[in-house]
Structure formats: structure tokens, C-alpha cells
Specification:
alpha+beta, five-stranded antiparallel beta sheet, 5 strands, 26% strand, globular
């Protein structure tokens, strides 16, 4: 029985294709270069204090934003806002009171 199980395991190992790389093998050097192209209407703005706000218009009332505030170095905060209702959701390092200031002025400026 043991030789049969060993033969089956060996057979499966030999017939299973090898995977060249997986999620855990990601390396930026292996990525093929791809030219960037705009995929929607949007732009990046610089505020008076040199913070950056980049946005993409998703629909007539919805916008996706990336905010890089100079007072909070690190990753940009991602925000999705409905300019008709004023409701927004975010993920990132900026606190709600800071985001309220950005969101208050955003929909009236686009």
C-alpha cells in the first residue's frame, strides 16, 4: 500500500504544472512597464500649504479623491464623496475634522 501512495504522490507532483510566481513573490522588478493613461475626468490641485488633492469624477455627483496633507506625511487618504448629498467615506490617516475641511470646500469647487 505504501509504494502505491508514494507512486500517486510522485505522479501528482510530476504532472502538476509549476507556478512561476504567486502573490507573495511580487517584485516591482518583475512588472512589465505600462504607459499610464487617464481613465476619467480629474486633476490634481495644490493647496496653499502645499498639500495635494487629486480627484477623479466617477459620475455627475460622485468623486474619488486622494489627499496628501503635508501635516500628516505618509500615505494619501482615499475619500469617496457624493456631492449631491454631501455624504463621504474615507480610509487613511487623516482625522475627521481635517477631512471635514477638505470635503466642505471640495464639491463647491468642482
Amino acid at each position: 500500500m505504501n509504494p502505491l501512495i508514494s507512486a500517486l504522490v510522485l505522479s501528482a507532483a510530476l504532472t502538476t504544472p509549476a507556478i512561476s510566481g504567486g502573490v507573495h513573490d511580487f517584485s516591482p522588478e518583475n512588472r512589465r512597464p505600462v504607459a499610464t493613461t487617464p481613465s476619467g475626468v480629474g486633476k490634481c490641485l495644490t493647496t496653499r500649504d502645499k498639500s495635494y488633492v487629486c480627484y477623479l469624477k466617477v459620475s455627475n455627483r460622485h468623486y474619488s479623491l486622494a489627499i496628501h496633507d503635508v501635516d500628516q506625511p505618509g500615505y494619501a487618504t482615499s475619500v469617496f464623496i457624493d456631492c449631491q448629498t454631501g455624504v463621504w467615506k474615507s480610509w487613511g490617516v487623516l482625522k475627521q475634522d481635517v477631512l471635514n475641511q477638505y470635503m466642505h470646500g471640495f464639491c463647491t469647487s468642482v
